[in-house]
Amino acid sequence: MNDHDGIRPEAFYIFFDEFAKRNLSYRIPIRSRHTYLDALAVYLNVFAEELEQCIALHQNVYSQKFIPEASHHPGHKLSAYIHANLQEPLPTLRELARMYNTNERQLQETFQKLFSISIYRYYTRERLRKAERMILETEEPLRDIAYECGFNTYHNFSTAFRKQFGYTPSMLRKRS
Questions:
Q1: So where are the chain's domains?
Q2: Do residues 94 and 117 touch, judged by C-beta distance below 8 A?
Q3: Helical spans, DSSP H, in the chain
Q4: Kind and range of the H or E element at 88?
Q5: Which of 11, 63, 72, 151 has a beta carbon 3.0–4.6 Å from 157's, enabling a disulfide?
Q6: How far apart are CA 82 and CA 127, in angstroms?
Q7: Residue 60 phi/psi, 5° resolution?
Q8: Each residue of 79-122: pLDDT tens digit?
Q9: Which is the CATH superfamily of the domain at 68-176?
Q10: What is the pLDDT averaged over residues 53-74?
């Protein structure tokens, strides 16, 4: 491999090194346009994201064994609420706790134990995952996708998307 318009081979080495260490959070930065390495980087980043989701799902299923009536658990109810309302602003922690007849601290702690992520980070991550799927599966304009996923401005959406995945929504659209 040589340097192709900005993607350095070291980024791939780091990705696989982190992957071998079971760190799935590293993403290969995409800086150039329409090269084979860019396409490979996009696919590897999406693969890592999907694998991360599978592991989280497995951990959630495993954790359900230790929580009586897990589907009635406030953490699971909150997760379902988030998925059903991704386009809406998330209520305050106080309002969420009131919705699920618990206190703020208990809701935060149980959600963190169940999903290994804070409520608000989970909410943002799920909105961005929905956006990623929509970009890959539809021809809908990116600004409309941003709005449907609860972002007030395209700039905020694009910034959060790049922070989460290592590339912008428009880069992903060009490669899909």
A1: 1-66, 68-176
A2: no
A3: 9-20, 36-64, 74-84, 93-99, 104-115, 119-137, 142-148, 154-165, 169-175
A4: none
A5: 151
A6: 9
A7: -65, -45
A8: 989 989 988 899 999 999 999 999 999 999 999 998 899 999 99
A9: Homeodomain-like (1.10.10.60)
A10: 55
